[in-house]
Amino acid sequence: MAIATINPTTGETVRTFPELSESEIERKVGLAHKRWRTYRDTGFDERAEWMRTGADLLEQEADAAARLMTTEMGKTLAAARGEALKCARGMRYYADNAAEFLADEPLADPAAVGARHALSRYRPLGPVLAVMPWNFPMWQVMRFAAPALMAGNVGLLKHASNVPQCALYLEDVFRRGGFPEGCFQTLLISSGRVEAILRDPRVVAATLTGSEPAGRSVAAICGDEVKHTVLELGGSDPFVVMPSADLDRAAETAVDARVQNNGQSCIAAKRFIVHSDVYDAFTDRFVAGMRALTVGDPFDPATDVGPLATERGRAAVEELVDEAVARGAKVLCGGRRPPGPGWFYPPTVITGITRDMRIFTEEVFGPVATLFRAADIEEALEIANATTFGLGSNAWTRDEAEQDRFISDLDAGQVFINGKTVSYPDLPFGGVKHSGYGRELSAHGIREFCNLKTVWIG
């Protein structure tokens, strides 16, 4: 895939970029390793000052950053601006909390282990390669970069090939924020050149957000090299609605949860599992809400849903929908691409899904909702967990016993009750099963790329 900005609203190539040469990659990896050997000993206060300056820049330039994101991957301008501001909040969160999160942890009774003093200390690992996706081209990067840099690591970014300008912009933000040269570098390379960097002994760990096949590849290489990895892969999140739910709020949130980021979010609700007692009432509200959305130019403030990011991505969504319909599924709204340029696909609701359809097991990365009827909580949980994914989940009920049951029994890294799944700097983020392992964000995220060193003093 060429490294290029291709406007998904028009399909036109805006700008192309050459790949780095082998000598350029060597220079950047060498610089990262050399820089880490001094950067790791900077203080939290110094790092925090640079991080806050970078956050100031992102806030001041939020409109320009948003236009860059919208041009490269098609999210609405309002959503893109919100993403830029969220990055700034995440930077400030780690600037404010890194020292506390990574403070020494003394053993309360060192005599119990025969020591005068005993503690655990967090130390940075070194250069970390981040392989990042296009769907949240700045936030996905920042939720790795902010904690990694505050911990004393340095970052190498291999971003998706269709968002090169976002990647270069983030490198520039850190540079202008004051971070020394080499602390955060963008590598404009194709995916075929990632393995050599992962196997470079100067690169000590990796993090990937992306598809399951990409995650398997990175994990296999790093496993062979015995290097730490954090993986956040796909999701097919359930959205369960029980009889006690506030149906108006649930349906309104369901629409937003399905079409956020034009439907291209790993934590977007994708499978809507509704108790039989409220199935018809919820379906009427949900379908009406999906039909009412405006699809169009993401730069237009009136637009609710912009184009899909790539032509190949739209084709993949169409294949899943068309295969389901051919096998007997019923389309309640949407289901066909509109005429004209750009990679648009309408908000779509499908029911009558059976387990022999690909759409039952595969993640739909577009504004397509599958609708299921459940007789009771047991069947709702069975359908919800009948997937290899386990990233986020949503359950709508005002019954506390049911809430406890969903919290305990939904196979997911995150459970949101009476609300949609959202990532917050304050909460750990990650999944189980084929959705990956490890955690980003919160105190857990900054500790992922640290050596937890045991110290015993006699």
Automatic annotation (TrEMBL):
<protein>
    <submittedName>
        <fullName>NADP-dependent succinic semialdehyde dehydrogenase</fullName>
    </submittedName>
</protein>
<dbReference type="InterPro" id="IPR016161">
    <property type="entry name" value="Ald_DH/histidinol_DH"/>
</dbReference>
<dbReference type="Pfam" id="PF00171">
    <property type="entry name" value="Aldedh"/>
</dbReference>
<dbReference type="InterPro" id="IPR016163">
    <property type="entry name" value="Ald_DH_C"/>
</dbReference>
<dbReference type="InterPro" id="IPR015590">
    <property type="entry name" value="Aldehyde_DH_dom"/>
</dbReference>
<feature type="domain" description="Aldehyde dehydrogenase">
    <location>
        <begin position="3"/>
        <end position="455"/>
    </location>
</feature>
<comment type="similarity">
    <text>Belongs to the aldehyde dehydrogenase family.</text>
</comment>
<keyword id="KW-0560">Oxidoreductase</keyword>
<dbReference type="InterPro" id="IPR016160">
    <property type="entry name" value="Ald_DH_CS_CYS"/>
</dbReference>
<dbReference type="InterPro" id="IPR016162">
    <property type="entry name" value="Ald_DH_N"/>
</dbReference>
<dbReference type="InterPro" id="IPR044148">
    <property type="entry name" value="ALDH_GabD1-like"/>
</dbReference>
<dbReference type="InterPro" id="IPR047110">
    <property type="entry name" value="GABD/Sad-like"/>
</dbReference>
<keyword id="KW-0521">NADP</keyword>
